[in-house]
Design a protein that fits this description.
single chain; 292 residues; alpha/beta; Rossmann fold; 9-stranded mixed sheet; two-stranded antiparallel ribbon; 11 strands; 30% helix; 20% strand; globular
Length: 292
Amino acid sequence: MSAQANTNAHASVLKPAPYTDRYVEVAGLKLHLQDYGTVGKPVMLCMHGSAAHAHWFDFVASGLTNDYHVLAPDQRGHGDSEWDRSAEPEYNYDRYAADIHALTEKLDLRDFVLVGHSMGGLVSIVYAATYPGRAKAFIMVDSSVNMPEDRVAAMNAIGSREGRSYADLDEFVAMYKVRPAGSSATPDIVRHLALHSGRPFEDGRWRSKVDRNVYARRVGRNLMPCWANIKIPALLMKGDRSNRVSPEIIAGVKALAPQVEVAEVSGCDHHVTLDNPPGFVEAARKFLNKIR
């Protein structure tokens, strides 16, 4: 692998970065955007994973804002963005990618660094392949380029049944877990995420902010061919304990996009930005310093 971040996950945990809330209307939905600053620096646009939200980047933004204007939207149906309430809600890669395109046009973002974790990485692959010319670099963080059918089916089943509810915020936070399991994020980081992951619904019960249709309507797709259309510098970043970015995936991507580099971050499973925030920052900076 072309790069390795050896920072210990628990040796130097970054603090959550301050941010400003912004809202942008995209395709008829009001999307929430966290603006960490710093205006005037090159923009870094960070896309979270499925059933997650922009706060997944709180602990790495503080290590990047000296050099980048870091932005992280909640994708439709997630976090504090609106849900798609239509009869046939669109929660698919093409729609999410079109949302990124519309967002970058509305905010006039150019020559930005695109960062995508998990599903956010898959959406970013589709965006980078379909809407070339605005992103100048791409960092994919522990994303399965070709999700197995059984995993998609499991997501559909989860989304099609009623989710759990809780009496109040304290109970929600106490029961909150990072999914998928295996994360070594500190209790403080997990609690921080929990405080931003739920809200009271009409019946007064607390539930996750994510629209369950995000899972119920998930469709699998092999995104490997998209890499043939991605010409910008790109980095595949993976956790050292994760098997989502397999050697086969790396070989397939590099065959289509020879410019792609690889970085493995130590002490991590799937949630690299939570398990080892300093390691994520180190790996991202090492890659980006070559193209500034």
